[in-house]
Amino acid sequence: MKAVRLTQVFIAAAMIVALISLMAPATLAANPPEPTYGSAVVDGDYSEWDLTNDFFAEMREAGRADKALLSKAYLRYDCASQTLYVLVLAETPQTVEANKPSDNWVKIYDLTNSPQVDGNSTSFAWINRNGDYADGWEASFSLSAGSYTMLEIHAQIIPNRTSSTGKKDRAIPLTMSCVVGALGDRVWYDANRDGVQDPGEVGINGITVTITGNGVNTSMATSEDGGYYFDNLYPGTYTVCVDPMTLPAGYEQTYDLDGILDHCATVTLGPGETRLDVDFGYVWPLSLGDLVWWDQDNSPQTVRPTDRDGIQNLAPGLEVGVANVPVYLFAGACDVGSNAGNYSMGNGALATTTTDADGLYRFDNLLAGSYCIVIPPLAFQTGGPLAGASASPVGQGSDPAADSNGETNVSPEFAYATATLTNADDFTYDFGFYTSYAPTAVTLSELTASGAAAQPWAALAWGALGMAFAGGVAWSRRRG
What would the pLDDT profile of 374-388 be if each residue is shown by its tens digit? Predict the structure, then answer.
């Protein structure tokens, strides 16, 4: 008797399990039950499909959740054309029976009991067909956006096994939400190259931005603050690109949304979604520098009014650049009180260079910001290009490209100037120097001869000067 009761319990349990299995959802399906948004090509090549993101539902034997998994279904929906794309792939080692096209189909029972598409349709293609066998199939058909409650995707599996998302009484729902959205934001000058839109960083105006995808292909120019905005976009994946030919020459990219820095970003919009994070950062690699020059005529016996005035008087003037002068560049504005030792030794310098034959120097590939330019002590040491030189006065005249910027530190001896870059190169940081003249001794007869040769009256003047000098000596002697 006890054995009979135990058997009855087992039978009841089995019936409950069977009932639950019948009531349970037929397959593992997408939640929410929406396809991904986009299009595909029905040609038997499914390489454009994303088998992770496009997965929609399992297809089990006879559409029963407790049966074997035989294949999987993948869906895409194009809102613009209102087309549903279906991909079915048999699970290894299963294959699809390609010699029975009518047994491979899609039905939406809300609409009709007949297939919307099957193996006899023109918009149907087998995947890797080999005679009567195939790895799967893909198809497409027109379907209005909205919600449906009874979708069944069916495939015939060899030998004589049906694979389905669920029979009519267990069919699964399908929803296409084609609410439009938008995307956009800004193309900006990323002055410090950090990929972040910092306060004060300006937009770049007039840059062409193009969006493609989901049947969209349109362009616009950025506004004065670098902004752009595309709206009325159906759900799906879009590619947004900046046309680099419309950027100012020499600009380099510092940021885009996917981090690839190819002037493009790929964005997926959900129904009604607005994305305002599709930004593009650019920067001009900045340069600074200019001239180290002798602020005196290249004539050691002549002192001219333009000497030592802190203003360049180059060709056709007689002032020239100083070659082979070492120049150091440090980050940050000059702080001699704290960094004199580092400046003099070059410790922590961002870059070093030497003036060319014309006295010119430059530093390239710089960020916006402040820098300290230093001419170190070794330039002023015996044998150095500036040995015995003094710095010209700073900030003279009205032309910043022709004045001198170099301040002087006494001990250790070096010259320095603070440079500030914003969003353009700056070649106005000059250093003027001069040396004290050492007059050459000459005789009175040499001066008289040279003067007489140049001007006849000079001999008379020097003669009169000689007579006066002689008379003065005679008078002095008499007085003594």
Answer: 999 999 999 999 999
